[in-house]
Backbone:
């Protein structure tokens, strides 16, 4: 699992691969196929394995991928892997957005094209900063400030 995870992370650090959406997607699809086989064979055993598998699916584009990421990261957290909780929250937000709902924590933002401003996608206003803190997510004001900072770098 570690080898697949490291390749996933390396692709995201390589500007040539990152800027080639087709190649990155091709690599992501191949990694998800391998991880699905790990899952099918019950070859994920540690909290870290579940975390790394969740990260692989986090990069997927479909609702199915996001659902799988949320499930894997929840399991990793239940097995007490410290990094799992924040990524779980981010993946849950991504899943909710893909399903046409408001995100819970406020971790998802995007822009329409490279010259447009970044925006935070709709957020469920009932989520408090106290709850965000439980998931190791910044307070909403700081999340908004981070997006403003991205826009000031244009």
Residues:
């Amino acid at each position: 699992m570690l080898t697949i995870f490291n390749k996933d992370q390396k692709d995201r650090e390589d500007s040539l691969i990152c800027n080639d959406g087709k190649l990155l997607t091709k690599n992501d699809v191949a990694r998800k196929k391998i991880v699905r086989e790990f899952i099918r064979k019950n070859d994920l055993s540690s909290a870290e394995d579940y975390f790394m598998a969740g990260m692989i699916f986090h990069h997927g584009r479909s609702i199915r991928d996001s659902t799988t990421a949320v499930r894997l990261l929840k399991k990793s957290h239940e097995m007490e892997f410290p990094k799992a909780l924040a990524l779980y929250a981010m993946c849950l937000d991504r899943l909710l957005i893909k399903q046409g709902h408001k995100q819970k924590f406020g971790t998802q933002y995007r822009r329409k094209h490279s010259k447009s401003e970044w925006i935070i996608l709709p957020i469920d206003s009932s989520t408090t900063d106290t709850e965000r803190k439980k998931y190791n997510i910044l307070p909403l004001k700081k999340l908004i400030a981070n997006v403003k900072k991205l826009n000031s770098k244009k």
